[in-house]
Amino acid sequence: MQPIDFYFDFASPYGYFMSEKIDALAAKHGRTVIWRPILLFAALRSLGLPPPFEHPVKLEYITADFARSATFLNIDYSLPPGFPALTQHAARAFYLLNGKAPSAAVPFAQTVLRGYFRDGRDISNIDVIAHMVGDHTASLGSTAKVCDLLKGDEAKAMLQAAITDAVQKKVFGSPFVVVDGEGFFGVDRLPQLAARLAGTKA
Fold first, then answer.
1. DSSP letter, residue 86
2. How far is CA 189 from CA 64, 121, 124, 194, in A?
């Protein structure tokens, strides 16, 4: 059976919530998950769509809904200082790891998401991300070396390719999960995802 594609932005609370659920749900139905971090603002810009927090009325609602959704899903969560963070370093690090130490990529992503949304760590800081990489593997070298790699053309190209793929797949939010070509937007689509994977709903 085809893997499930899981698109998300490291600064997305809903993406974080889905990250805590998607692998177990997929495994229950004999599926694997391909994690695909992107920069949501870049994807939206390419699609000609507005930023998700552009209007203060929507921002007020959605900020309250983050906490409500975390409670409903029984996930530890706290809105981080300076939300939303810039996430290009985290996303570039993921793709570097995925290419050079693939077994470390998803655990690294989980560390970033939990570090940000549970502990309030500054994931926009390149040194913080480089240390998180080092916590999972030494394959990319020292912290200073990792910082250099994150600023390099290879890492930038990998992330840009991921964003381009997301735009081609019409990914317009985080999380955005694709099952056998069918897209599901939002962590609130978990029941529909479960039904789709179980084959009980078309």
1. P
2. 19, 28, 29, 9
The predicted-structure confidence for 1-38, as pLDDT tens digits, reads as follows: 899 999 999 999 999 999 999 999 999 999 999 999 99
Residue 86, burial from CB neighbour count under 10 angstroms (0-12, 13-18, 19+): middle
The rounded distance, in Å, linking the Cα atoms of 183 and 94 is 23
CATH number of 4-198: 3.40.30.10
Contacts of 188 (CB under 8 A, 6+ apart): 69
Per the confidence metrics, is the pTM higher than 0.85?
yes
Cβ-contact 140, 105 below 8 angstroms: no
Tokens describing residue 76: 């530890």
Q: Where are the domains of the chain?
A: 4-198
Q: What are the structure tokens assigned to 78, written together?
A: 């706290």
Q: How far apart are CA 159 and CA 152, in angstroms?
A: 11
The half-sphere exposure of 149 on its side-chain side, counting CA atoms within 13 A, is 23
Q: What is the pLDDT of residues 34-57, one digit of tens each?
A: 999 999 999 999 999 988 777 788
Distance between CA atoms of residues 171 and 176, nearest Å: 6
CA 95 to chain centre: 12
